[in-house]
From TrEMBL:
It is an enzyme of class 2 (transferase). Its cofactor is Mg(2+). Keywords: Cytoplasm, DNA damage, DNA repair, DNA replication, DNA-binding, DNA-directed DNA polymerase, Magnesium, Metal-binding, Mutator protein, Nucleotidyltransferase, Transferase. The active site is at residue 102. It comes from Agromyces cerinus subsp. cerinus. SUPFAM superfamilies: DNA/RNA polymerases, Lesion bypass DNA polymerase (Y-family), little finger domain. Monomer. This is DNA polymerase IV. It is found in: Cytoplasm.
Length: 398
């Protein structure tokens, strides 16, 4: 028994471009690109001409000389997103947002009061069309992975149910690019090996896939190709930033003192990140100067991390950049927040399996703290220095 198809993946079609066409009737039916230097979104009319997201604006014009390029209006997209998510949450309490324009909805418990998953999806699509003026595609399946593949296959403006007994028939003939997590590089690798469909990937032994694609990626994709994806809809997913800050009073602080405080803050939030099985990509340093003017500096990493050493190195670089200002104006508050936070398992494919010393140190420190409390362990930067302060009062923010 495989259970029932009760997971919906709802995904707005060509989201930014569709909002532009909704708000400007003269753009309807025309190839529209949102962005300028780079294509942030393309309408289906532009996609039909070969225009793709992340393509340069020049290339888009070459492909499609009559393309209409409009600047992004993030406020309008946020408002549309909020309206659509309100409809999601009105449909079921079990909503897991994936991005500004897509979410998983678990509707399994609603049959008696709201009907079958297919009926619920039809009503959801009608409401988004009527109340927000946008087309949304919905895939329905037993697992999140299959629901996401189904919504993509159904686009544009589609609804596709993958019944449990039809899963292989649906998935195996699809091109490997349809697997969630297969990017251009992995697809190219597979193509070179003559593997073009999900079925061909599924036929390999797991060990073969791991050897060809790397252990983590190979095992993950092979499991997906064989229809193993047990993850339930996760409504506890935290999209918000993780952060901590410390007010410093008005006395002067040496660079060394600031470094110790920064280390404590990063150590603590990195641990929270790992405890929540999360990784992040952006580190934000927040400062309040002696004159109480606030400033922030941020840096985004190329790949997500949960390593204290990496996060601390970025935070230190940001603080070093602010030192001239601090020297001149004084500093009364320092804080760090981590954003672009995602579940570790959702980005596993981009993470190298790198069991280096940093990983071992973080794991060991976390374990010791779990047993003996946070005060029992200090990082090297804090050792040999008597801070002379009471334990830091780190208040949460965001
Ligand atoms: Mg979308």
């Amino acid at each position: 028994m495989r259970g029932e198809a009760t997971v919906l993946h709802a995904d707005l079609d060509a989201f930014y471009a569709s909002v532009e066409q909704r708000d400007a009737p003269e753009l309807r039916g025309r190839p529209v690109v949102v962005g300028g230097g780079v294509v942030l979104a393309a309408s289906y009319e532009a996609k039909a001409r070969g225009v793709r997201t992340a393509m340069g604006g020049r290339q888009a014009r070459d492909l499609c000389p009559d393309v209409v390029v409009v600047p992004p209006r993030m406020d309008a997209y946020s408002a549309a997103s909020r309206a659509v998510f309100a409809i999601f949450r009105d449909t079921t309490p079990l909503v897991e947002g994936l991005s500004i324009d897509e979410a998983f909805l678990e509707v399994g418990g609603l049959r008696r009061i709201a009907g079958t998953p297919e009926q619920i999806a039809m009503r959801l699509r009608e409401r988004v069309r009527a109340e927000v003026g946008l087309a949304i595609s919905v895939g329905i399946a037993r697992t999140k992975f299959l629901a996401k593949v189904a919504s993509a296959v159904s686009k544009p403006d589609g609804l596709l149910v993958v019944e449990p007994e039809r899963e292989e028939a649906f998935l195996l003939p699809l091109p490997v690019e349809r697997l969630w997590g297969v990017g251009a590089v992995t697809a190219e690798k597979l193509h070179r090996l003559g593997i073009r469909t999900v079925g061909q990937l599924a036929e390999l032994e797991s060990a073969t896939a791991e050897r060809l694609l790397g252990k983590a990626t190979g095992a993950h994709l092979h499991a997906l190709a064989r229809l193993r994806d047990p993850r339930p809809v996760d409504t506890t997913r935290r999209r918000s930033a993780i952060g901590s800050q410390r007010a410093l009073g008005s006395r002067l602080r040496s660079a060394d003192e600031l470094d110790v405080i920064l280390t404590q803050i990063v150590d603590r939030i990195a641990r929270r990140l790992r405890d929540g099985d999360r990784v992040c990509r952006t580190v934000v340093l927040r400062l309040r100067y002696g004159d109480f003017v606030k400033a922030s500096r941020s840096r985004t990493l190329r790949s997500p991390t949960d390593r204290t050493a990496v996060l601390l190195a970025v935070a230190r670089a940001l603080l070093a950049g602010a030192q001239p200002e601090i020297a001149e104006r004084g500093i009364t508050l320092i804080g760090v927040s981590l954003s672009q936070v995602a579940r570790t398992d959702s980005v596993q494919l981009e993470l190298p399996i790198d069991w280096d010393d940093g990983v071992r140190l973080d794991t060991a420190l976390d374990a010791v703290r779990d047993r003996f409390g946070a005060a029992s362990v200090s990082r090297a930067a804090q050792l040999g220095r008597d801070p002379g302060w009471s334990p830091p009062q780190l208040s949460e923010h965001e």
